[in-house]
Amino acid sequence: MSEQELSERIDALESRLTYQDETIEQLNATITAQWQQIDALTRQLAALSERLQEAEANAPAPANERPPHY
Predict the structure, then answer these.
(1) pTM surpassing 0.85?
(2) If the chain, 70 residues long, is cut into consecutive pieces of 10 residues, what is the mean pLDDT of each piece?
(3) What does the alpha-carbon distance between residue 2 and residue 8 come to, in Å, rounded to a whole number?
């Protein structure tokens, strides 16, 4: 293999490595954003669950009345 061919192969590998590094950084940023969103949604779900439990605890008991269509 000539020195020129070897140099071209190294250049190609360096180019691929650069694109792979950029892709990894983009994926990392995406995953970080998704985890932040998951965390926020988890906290929101917990708060809504707590509010629902409070509302159910404070709701008046259903009366044993017949519906109006009877």
Answers:
(1) no
(2) 94 97 98 98 98 90 72
(3) 10
